[in-house]
Automatic annotation (TrEMBL):
GO molecular function, one term: transmembrane transporter activity
Keyword Cell inner membrane: no
Subcellular location: Membrane
Principal cellular location given in the protein's record: membrane
Record keyword Cell membrane present: no
Segments of skewed composition (Pro residues): 13-23
Annotated TM spans: 31-52, 72-94, 101-121, 127-152, 159-178, 190-210, 234-255, 267-286, 298-316, 322-341, 362-382, 394-414
InterPro entries according to UniProt: MFS, MFS_dom, MFS_trans_sf, Proton-linked_MCT
Renumbered residue ranges of the record's region Disordered: 1-23
Name this protein carries in UniProt: MFS monocarboxylate transporter
Species: Aspergillus sclerotiicarbonarius (strain CBS 121057 / IBT 28362)
Amino acid sequence: MDSDASETEKQPPSKPADTAPPPPPDGGFTAWLQVLGAFFLFFNSWGILNAFGPFQSYYQSTLIPTYSSSQITWIGTFQGFVLLLVGVIVGPIFDKGYLRSLVAIGTFMVVFGMMMTSLATKYYQLFLAQGVTVGIGCAFLFLPSIAIVATYFTSRRALATGITASGGSIGAVIYPIMFHKLINKVGFGWTTRIIGFVALAGLLVSLAVLKRRLPPPAQSRALLDLAALKEPPFLAFSFGLFFCFVGLYFPFFYLQSYFTYYLHNDSSLAFYIFSVLNATSVVGRITPGILADRFGGLNTLIPISILATILGYVWLAVDNVGGAVVFTCLYGFASGAIVSLPPSILTRMSPSLGVVGTRLGMIFMFAGCGFLIGTPCASLLLDLESGEFWKGQVFTATFLAAGTLCFVLVRVMLWRKDMGWKI
């Protein structure tokens, strides 16, 4: 790892410690090249994670049919939990200057995990390969993708972060389609291997173009920034993410089952609904970023969280395919914003860019815990045989409402601290 120290550690050491680094370029070829590299990191972290729906359906129907849907769901949610939890370790490592080492390790873990998944035939093998190994690899990719972009932009930070985050949605559109087109032609093993090779190609682009702008801090930093835990706005924001992630991902795992068991629609639309959900999430990751640069990230997140909450309750009244497609599109948009806006908000709330990586890891630890328990708990409320989904729908909407209330509380706290209206 010492060989990495990236270009930042090769800078002249004679530079005075108290000299402030140059301001972010907020644009230019190098800055947007970082967005491209970070886009592929997101594409092959959240893109793979959000593409678990087709794997879930295949495991339940073909590969390991003796296991319940709740047990199979744990593979995908543990993958997301590890992705977010390991950020507590990855954040300080990033802050110390080891960008390329993180990306290289993450690339190996994701590709190796997918190759091992292609060979798996038992539940524990799938859990270790896809849930643990791929999850850890995604963690090494995800946080650097957000943190590196934040150091290159100021006024257009939310837009740049939104474009970066859209990689997760685009990946989650492409990978399920690949799975659907290949599974009957080449089988599960080669389908999963091809996905692994595509991930490798994208991640090699990231390795080639990503470059740190800021030198690492002179003093080493602990894994946790304990000062943040004494800041009420930080705590409220963290719990807001926890509640939102508890409820947010239930549709990402069970929309296909909803079409099949509740709407009794087993056409190709039932499969492609995952791609529709993630395609509209692309818009939700980019458009709110533009609004956030103008009005503030938190000011944009709150109304969109309210929209997601309303959609969760409205979902209870949907009883036809047309209404379900409209719900899917709107919910995809709202969920994309909820995932993509928090990093830029956290950056604005942090006392300095030097602790952004550490604090991102901390808030994603909260989000990861929510992600881990949310969908498996909601799945216990389902009865697929009778097509009963309403308890899971209420579960989703209620936790989104709790998260929204936390975000409103953060806004009030920051307003009282005279941080201005654009937050």
